[in-house]
Amino acid sequence: MTNMISIAIVEDEKFYNHTLKRVLDLHKEFNCVAQIYSGADALVQLPSVRPDLVLMDLHLKDYLGSDLIRLLKEKMPESTFVVITSFEEEERVFESLRAGAVGYLVKGESLENITKAIHEAYNGGVPMSRTIAQKVLNFFRKQSEKQNRIPDLSPTELMVLEMMAKGQPYKEIAHNKHVSVETIKKHISNIYKKLGVKNKVEAINFLRKYD
Q1: Which of 133, 166, 191 is at the close of a domain?
Q2: What CATH number is associated with residue 54?
């Protein structure tokens, strides 16, 4: 007998929330245990419900989905999170994956693909919409090429430098990397030494030569 998968929906757009619920109700192996319409309610309800899988909107009226995932993963580490959103920007994708999401679907996916993604995520896979998967592949391809051109920097140092180039302050970089500000400062000091530069502007200019 197929194991029943308990699923919660966190989506503030009521029409789409109900659409996802109808998709789940078509499958006997899915059990929708909660329909939630705000981040605040998700933080209260989900830790007590503890579903196998959460379908999470990325941009709720009161919370970013990535922040919610990060907070909820601490309370319910056994639950699997799959983002369903209209946002396709690279930064949003990686922010969600760093927070603990295992999948990233774009709204507009067929009902069949949503169903497949739930099964895939539940069984340990990493389901992504085709456009998102392509962005991820392109990102790592660019990272690999850049790493070959700037061989002195470690992957972590290169990522920190790229965050600096985007104008992110040390505190935000530390938050995204889940480390202290002091650790980020040490990385930056190492970056300066390896690149032979004296400050942030010179380091960013060095990086841009390889873009």
Answers
A1: 133
A2: 3.40.50.2300
- Cβ-Cβ contacts under 8 Å for 162 (sequence gap 6 or more): 207
Instruction: Give the tens place of pLDDT for each residue, 109-139.
Output: 888 899 999 999 999 998 887 777 677 666 6
Q: Same domain for 128 and 82?
A: yes
Q: Are 121 and 103 in contact (CB under 8 A)?
A: yes
Element containing residue 33 per DSSP (H, E): strand 30-36
pTM: predicted TM-score of the whole model, two decimal places: 0.66
Instruction: With cut-offs at 50, 70 and 90, classify the pLDDT of residue 62.
Output: very high
- Which among 107, 133, 159 is the end of a domain? 133
Residue partners of 138: CB distance under 8 A and separation at least 6: none
Nearest-angstrom CA–CA distance, 83 and 24: 16
Alpha-helical segments (H) within the chain: 14-25, 39-49, 65-75, 90-99, 111-122, 130-149, 155-165, 170-177, 181-195, 200-208
The upper half-sphere exposure of residue 131, i.e. CA atoms within 13 Å in the direction of its Cβ, equals 12
Residue for token pair 């935000």: 172
Q: How far apart are CA 154 and CA 176, in angstroms?
A: 17
